[in-house]
TrEMBL record:
Entry annotated with the keyword Lipid metabolism: yes
Classification via InterPro entries: CS_dom, HSP20-like_chaperone, Tyr_Pase-like_PTPLA
Protein name per its UniProtKB record: Very-long-chain (3R)-3-hydroxyacyl-CoA dehydratase
UniProt record similarity statement: Belongs to the p23/wos2 family.
Superkingdom: Eukaryota
UniProt function note: Catalyzes the third of the four reactions of the long-chain fatty acids elongation cycle. This endoplasmic reticulum-bound enzymatic process, allows the addition of two carbons to the chain of long- and very long-chain fatty acids/VLCFAs per cycle. This enzyme catalyzes the dehydration of the 3-hydroxyacyl-CoA intermediate into trans-2,3-enoyl-CoA, within each cycle of fatty acid elongation. Thereby, it participates to the production of VLCFAs of different chain lengths that are involved in multiple biological processes as precursors of membrane lipids and lipid mediators.
Natural source organism: Parnassius mnemosyne (clouded apollo)
Length: 372
C-alpha cells in the first residue's frame, strides 16, 4: 500500500528549520530525526481524506544531534496542522531544504512564516528575512511560484511613475503634433488642448509629497511640497483663474519645459526603484535642470507678472474692507511679493538643492587598485 505524503511547508532562519505539515486531527505523530534526514508518519485528514500519511526527507545539511546521534525536535500538534522545529548544526542559510536540487511536489515554501516569525519559542523580535538575506527570498519565490512576487510599495511606485511619464509624453505629443500641423498658430490655444491633462498630472504630483510621509520614498517632505505647490499655484491660481493669460505664448513654453523635465525624471525614478544604474538617464536627470529650471522659473515669473494688471482689474482673490472678518488682502500686492521670493530666494534654493544632488550623483568613482 502506498502511503500518501501530506503538503509540507518549510521556512528557515540561520539557526533552525520550521516545517508545517498540513494535516488535521493528528494524534501522536511519529517523528524520527537523524543527523541529516527526517521521517514523519501520522494519521490525519489531508488532501487524500482521513488516512495514514508519511514522508521522508534527506536534508541539505546536518542538524544538531544528541549523544545517540538523533535530535529531539520541537513538535507542536494543532487541530489543523503539525509543526516541527529543527535546530541546525551550524548557523547558516540553506539555499534549499533537500539534499537533491529536485524537491518533491508536496514540499512548499512557507513565505508567511519567513516574513514574520523565526519559528522558535523566544522573545526575540520578528526578523525581516528579505532584508537580512537580499535576493534569496525573491529567488526562492520565483522557483516556487514561477514568478517573483514584488513588494506592493514597489509596484505602486512603478505604476505611479509610469503613469506620470505617459501623461507628460501625451502632453508633449499633442503639443508637438499640433505645432507640426499649425506651426506658431497652435501656440495660442495650447491650454485649451492640454490644460486638462496638465491639471490632472499636477494634482497627481501631490502624491509625491505623501510618499516620504508614509515611508514609500526616502527624503524630506518640504522640498517636494514647495516644488509641487509652486507649480500648482502658477497653474491653478494664475493660468486657470485668468482666461486672458491662457492664450499667451508663455503658457506653451512653460508646459514644454515642465514636460521635458518630467519625461526624464520619472523614468529615472523607475530605474532607481529597480536599482538599475543607467548612466545616460542619470546624467540627463542631473544635467537638464541647468538650463530648464531657470527657464521654467522665468516663464512662471512672466505668467505672474502678466497677471498683475489683470487681477488689479478683476479684483479676484482680493478681500476688501469692510467685511465681517475685518481682514484685507490685496492679491496683486501678494503677487509682487511672491514674484520677488520666486525670482531670487526661490531660484537660489532650487538650484542649490539640485547642484548638491548633481555633485553626489555624478561625482567620479575612485577605484583604488592594490599593487602586487
Amino acid at each position: 500500500m502506498i502511503v500518501p505524503s501530506p503538503f509540507v511547508y518549510w521556512a528557515q532562519t540561520d539557526k533552525c528549520i520550521t516545517l508545517k505539515i498540513d494535516l488535521k486531527n493528528v494524534v501522536n505523530p511519529d517523528v524520527n530525526v537523524s543527523d541529516n534526514s527526517i521521517k514523519f508518519s501520522g494519521k490525519g485528514i489531508g488532501a487524500h481524506g482521513e488516512t495514514q500519511y508519511g514522508f521522508s526527507l534527506d536534508l541539505f545539511s546536518s542538524l544538531k544531534s544528541n549523544n545517540d546521534g538523533n535530535q529531539d525536535p520541537i513538535v507542536r500538534v494543532f487541530e489543523n496542522r503539525v509543526e516541527l522545529v529543527l535546530q541546525k548544526q551550524k548557523a547558516s542559510w540553506w539555499p534549499r531544504l533537500t539534499a537533491q536540487p529536485q524537491k518533491p511536489a508536496w514540499l512548499k515554501i512557507n513565505f508567511d512564516l519567513w516574513k514574520s516569525e523565526d519559528g522558535q519559542d523566544s522573545d526575540d523580535e520578528a526578523r525581516d528575512v528579505m532584508r537580512d538575506y537580499p535576493g534569496m527570498y525573491d529567488r526562492l519565490h520565483q522557483e516556487e511560484m514561477g514568478y517573483r512576487k514584488e513588494d506592493l510599495k514597489k509596484v505602486y511606485l512603478v505604476i505611479y511613475n509610469l503613469f506620470q511619464f505617459i501623461g507628460f509624453v501625451y502632453v508633449l505629443a499633442v503639443m508637438g503634433v499640433r505645432y507640426a500641423k499649425l506651426e506658431y498658430e497652435s501656440v495660442s490655444d495650447t491650454y485649451e488642448h492640454v490644460g486638462p491633462a496638465m491639471k490632472f498630472l499636477q494634482l497627481m504630483q501631490y502624491l509625491e509629497v505623501m510618499h516620504p510621509m508614509f515611508g514609500y520614498t526616502k527624503g524630506g517632505v518640504l522640498v517636494p511640497f514647495l516644488q509641487v505647490s509652486g507649480r500648482a499655484f502658477v497653474l491653478f491660481a494664475m493660468i486657470e483663474a485668468e482666461p486672458r493669460i491662457q492664450t499667451k505664448p508663455v503658457v506653451f513654453y512653460l508646459f514644454l519645459i515642465w514636460s521635458l523635465i518630467e519625461i526624464v525624471r520619472y523614468p529615472f525614478y523607475i530605474s532607481q526603484i529597480y536599482k538599475k544604474e543607467i548612466y545616460i538617464l542619470t546624467w540627463l536627470r542631473y544635467t537638464m535642470w541647468i538650463p530648464l529650471y531657470p527657464l521654467g522659473i522665468l516663464c512662471e515669473s512672466i505668467v505672474i507678472l502678466r497677471n498683475v494688471p489683470y487681477f488689479e482689474e478683476t479684483q479676484r482673490f482680493t478681500v476688501s474692507l469692510p467685511n465681517e472678518w475685518n481682514f484685507a488682502f490685496h492679491f496683486p500686492s501678494f503677487l509682487r511679493i511672491y514674484l520677488l521670493v520666486l525670482t531670487f530666494p526661490g531660484m537660489f534654493f532650487v538650484m542649490s538643492h539640485m547642484h548638491k544632488l548633481r555633485t553626489v550623483k555624478l561625482k567620479p568613482k575612485v577605484i583604488i587598485k592594490k599593487s602586487k
